[in-house]
Design a protein that fits this description.
Elements (H helix, E strand, L loop, with lengths): L32 H12 L3 H12 L6 H21 L2 H21 L4 H14 L5 H21 L4 H15 L3 H11 L7 H14 L4 H13 L3 H13 L5 H19 L1
């Protein structure tokens, strides 16, 4: 589970505001802002592969800057999801692995930033989908740890509440066998439920009502608990808001299909 020329988002998902903090006295080579803007323009135009190529060229000049690392992790994550949705899992996996490496670089250089811990939750959470058995459970458990660390740094960080909401819903959906395996391998799994998920997702919505991903996840969760009226409302909001990345474009397409299904029932 991040910006565009309209909003910066931290996903998933999915998207947060990033400021560049260049110091004129820094002896390190500075990332050329004109080239950085080129990558940002490509990202805003949903050209994730091209944007990632620009950012990775800049990475050769400065491998520690927060703004650049954030863009790298976010864009690699988005591009990996594009490949997973439209090409193949085989093509997507190495790109998703790159997104986790950039998130880990954020952890090394910027552990004080809540965005760092959200990126760890988003990228490792998505990368866990490519793993099986023991690794999937282990990586999945870490998502909660990372999201809670982000909230420790900033209790009002909407994206961390969003990540927790998704996590609690998915954990609550584990069947008896999956929980037994998790208990055997790792001594149990955190508590999760749709009610707990809705509480976290609603808090994310209160903090930032403009995120397509939050409305999309609320719609999915309300569908699971049988609240069609609330599901319809949030699907409508998904379509009303501007998509700021390719994941949100796909969520809008899914929302339109789901609304059509509801209307035909």
């Amino acid at each position: 589970m991040l910006g565009s020329g309209r909003r910066w988002v931290a996903a998933c998902v999915l998207f947060v505001t990033v400021w560049l903090t260049w110091s004129s006295g820094n002896a390190q080579a500075q990332v050329p802002t004109k080239v950085l803007a080129q990558g940002d323009s490509l990202y805003a135009a949903f050209e994730n592969e091209a944007a990632l190529a620009v950012y990775e060229r800049l990475y050769m000049q400065d491998s520690t800057d927060f703004g650049l690392l954030y863009r790298l992790s976010r864009t690699a994550n988005d591009y990996g999801q594009d490949l997973l949705a439209h090409v193949s899992k085989k093509e997507a996996e190495p790109v998703m692995a790159r997104s986790t490496r950039y998130a880990e670089a954020m952890r090394r250089h910027h552990p004080e930033r809540p965005e760092t811990w959200f990126q760890l939750a988003a990228t490792w959470g998505n990368y866990a989908l490519f793993k099986g058995g023991r690794d999937k459970v282990r990586l999945g458990r870490d998502v909660e740890t990372y999201a809670l660390k982000a909230l420790e740094l900033d209790p009002d960080y909407a994206y961390a509440h969003l990540a927790l909401g998704i996590f609690y819903r998915e954990i609550g959906a584990l069947n008896w066998f999956q929980r037994t395996v998790a208990n055997t391998l790792f001594g149990g799994v955190p508590d999760g439920s749709n009610d707990k998920a809705l509480k976290s997702l609603q808090r994310a919505l209160e903090l930032d009502p403009t995120l397509v991903m939050t409305h999309s996840e609320l719609a999915r969760t309300h569908r699971l608990v049988g609240d069609e009226a609330r599901e319809r409302y949030h699907l409508g909001r998904v379509l009303e808001l501007d998509a700021i990345n390719t994941d949100e474009l796909r969520r809008q397409q899914e929302a339109q299909r789901r609304l059509s299904e509801i209307d035909q029932q």
